[in-house]
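Hi support team,

I've been running sequence recovery on a batch of backbones for a student project. Most finish fine, but this one hangs at about 90% for roughly twenty minutes before it completes. I'm not sure whether the input is malformed or the queue is just slow. I've pasted the structure tokens below so you can try to reproduce it. Let me know if you need the job ID as well.

Thanks,
M.K.
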């Protein structure tokens, strides 16, 4: 054990001396490893963080939830099914909600939602533009949960009577009232209709998911009140249907498909005139997409690491040549081949580790930049850090194995006489 520690200590001292005495040469050798580690860990960290942020946005759409709509969210009118055929499909109707609930055993919750975007909200002399108004039914907040920062959520009485109450997004409350807590109890005007604010939604932050719920700049109204302001068929009507915990997403989707075809009275030969957009499908598609991106990151990083490995191998060949007399002296006084081999391999791994550490520092700086001004949450996981350390050690050993083997096999007499 003591001998092993002595070898480790000697290897680290020699490596450090090499770094100090040949700064330019060492820097050029470490540069490839630094860039390689930065590419691999940087890409993996960024992609993992991007995937996590998008999946958080997807999960916010509701777990085990299916959106029944005329539009297919994965196609958007592209592909073999043209957009005009989506347009010709019948829009979901509020009256169908009772039939869907009655026919589908796997349903836990169901909500009907409407959306009117690009609206102006006025309070006194102040006005904010391009806000989203959502009209929702009772189960909406159970399927799509969010916290109320101030005030309360819409009550059952609000839903039943269609009262002119609304829950406001945090950013909208800041813009209209200066301080969000001042919004509760105030009245705003939308399309010449007065709406009373009863609650403020807790700040959600920006979502990377295009088309997801945007709660920071919205107003949520009872469905019955919403339809007195906006026409239902032009307000992007859709159903949000959440399955029971004990039913799989695929089985739930199949059951819904059969029931929707029955409700729409479609014959077996007729194609569906609706789309079932499962949240689980979005998550699976994101996983497949990012797997390909990660592969590309690995290829770029490995190319840089190969260049870096040649640099490390070069510096080790030079080091072996410079220390040939010392190696001969060590072998003459009894040093074994494995001791010489271990010293040079550890030195190579240590040098490579330093290059990797510099690469990790650059990744950390990148994470701070993205997490700050760009408002993008970056997650550097422990598995990624462990991967970086492992790669450095492996590359260092592989790069140094040939020079170390040459040093271990030297004839002591010939080595001592060399200059």
């Amino acid at each position: 054990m003591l001998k092993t520690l002595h070898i480790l200590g000697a290897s680290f001292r020699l490596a450090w001396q090499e770094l100090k005495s040949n700064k330019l040469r060492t820097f050029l050798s470490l540069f490839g490893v630094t860039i390689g580690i930065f590419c691999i860990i940087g890409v993996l960290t960024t992609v993992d963080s991007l995937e996590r942020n998008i999946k958080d946005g997807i999960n916010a759409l509701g777990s085990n939830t299916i959106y029944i709509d005329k539009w297919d969210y994965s196609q958007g009118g592209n592909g073999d099914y043209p957009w005009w055929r989506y347009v010709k499909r019948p829009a979901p109707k509020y009256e169908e909600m009772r039939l869907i609930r009655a026919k589908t055993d796997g349903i836990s919750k169901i909500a009907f939602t409407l959306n009117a975007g690009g609206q102006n909200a006025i309070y006194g002399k102040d006005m904010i533009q391009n806000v989203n108004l959502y009209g929702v039914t009772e189960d909406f907040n159970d399927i799509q949960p969010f916290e109320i920062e101030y005030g309360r959520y819409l009550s059952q009485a609000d839903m039943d009577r269609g009262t002119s109450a609304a829950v406001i997004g945090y950013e909208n409350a800041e813009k209209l009232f200066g301080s969000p807590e001042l919004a509760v109890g105030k009245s705003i005007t939308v399309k010449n209709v007065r709406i009373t604010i009863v609650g403020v939604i807790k700040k959600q932050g920006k979502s990377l998911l295009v088309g997801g719920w945007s709660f920071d700049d919205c107003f949520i109204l009872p469905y019955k009140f919403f339809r007195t302001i906006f026409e239902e068929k032009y307000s992007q009507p859709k159903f949000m249907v959440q399955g029971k915990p004990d039913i799989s997403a695929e089985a739930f989707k199949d059951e819904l498909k059969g029931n929707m075809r029955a409700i729409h009275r479609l014959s077996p030969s007729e194609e569906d005139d609706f789309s079932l957009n499962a949240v689980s499908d979005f998550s699976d598609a994101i996983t497949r997409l990012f797997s390909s991106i990660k592969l590309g990151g690995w290829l770029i990083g490995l190319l840089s690491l190969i260049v870096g490995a040649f640099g490390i191998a070069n510096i080790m060949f030079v080091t072996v040549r410079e220390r040939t007399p010392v190696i001969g002296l060590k072998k003459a006084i009894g040093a074994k081949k494995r001791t010489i081999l271990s010293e040079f391999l550890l030195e190579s791994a240590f040098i490579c580790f330093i290059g990797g550490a510099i690469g990790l520092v650059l990744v950390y700086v990148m994470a701070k930049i993205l997490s700050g001004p760009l408002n993008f949450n970056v997650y550097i996981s422990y598995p990624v850090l462990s991967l970086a350390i492992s790669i450095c050690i492996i590359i260092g050993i592989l790069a140094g194995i040939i020079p170390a083997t040459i040093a271990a096999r030297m004839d002591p007499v010939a080595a001592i006489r060399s200059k």
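--
Follow-up from support: It reproduced on our side and the slowdown came from queue contention, not your input. The chain has a mean pLDDT of 82. No action needed from you.
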